[in-house]
């Protein structure tokens, strides 16, 4: 994950629209969240020492249900190229898959 500015969850304003909520897929069942607000992407922290993390997308939806999210995506960046010794790419190989507020919680 690239170095982004960070924001505490409690500092996010529920009345300010979140253009995009990004669930960064770090492992099989581990996600960290960033939000894009007014064109700027921020990693979301639960406190000054730790980034917020979740075990599944439904928990993310539950935690952000009070916010006005215009879109939600899961972003995965593969480490495959690095593992097999491929040269560094000039562009990211990140894949974004949309998921929405489905109220399954």
Write the layout of secondary structure elements.
Blueprint: E1 5-8, E2 20-27, E3 30-37, E4 40-45, E5 53-54, H1 57-63, E6 72-76, H2 80-83, E7 95-98
Parallel strand pairs: 1-4, 2-6
Antiparallel strand pairs: 2-3, 3-4, 3-5, 6-7
TL;DR of this structure?
The chain is mainly β and 105 residues long.
Descriptors for this entry?
105 residues; mainly beta; seven-stranded mixed sheet; 7 strands
Query: Would you count the extended β strands for me?
Result: 7
Helices, by number, come to: 2
Q: What is the succession of H and E elements?
A: EEEEEHEHE
Mean pLDDT: 87
Q: Beta-strand percentage?
A: 35-45%
The helicity comes to: 10-25%
The termini sit apart by: 28 Å
Biggest sheet features: 7 strands, mixed
How many whole angstroms does the radius of gyration measure?
A: 14 Å
Write structural notes for this entry.
- By secondary structure, the chain is mainly β.
- It has helices spanning 57-63, 80-83, and strands spanning 5-8, 20-27, 30-37, 40-45, 53-54, 72-76, 95-98.
- A hairpin with a 2-residue loop joins strand 3 (30-37) and strand 4 (40-45).
């Amino acid at each position: 994950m690239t170095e982004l500015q960070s924001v505490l969850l409690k500092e996010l304003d529920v009345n300010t629209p979140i253009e995009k909520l990004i669930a960064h897929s770090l492992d099989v069942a581990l996600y960290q969240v960033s939000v894009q607000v007014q064109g700027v992407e921020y990693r979301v922290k639960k406190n000054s020492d730790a980034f917020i993390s979740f075990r599944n997308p439904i928990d993310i939806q539950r935690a952000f249900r009070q916010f006005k999210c215009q879109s939600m995506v899961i972003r995965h960046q593969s480490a495959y190229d690095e593992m097999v010794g491929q040269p560094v790419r000039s562009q990211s190989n990140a894949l974004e898959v949309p998921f929405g507020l489905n109220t399954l919680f």
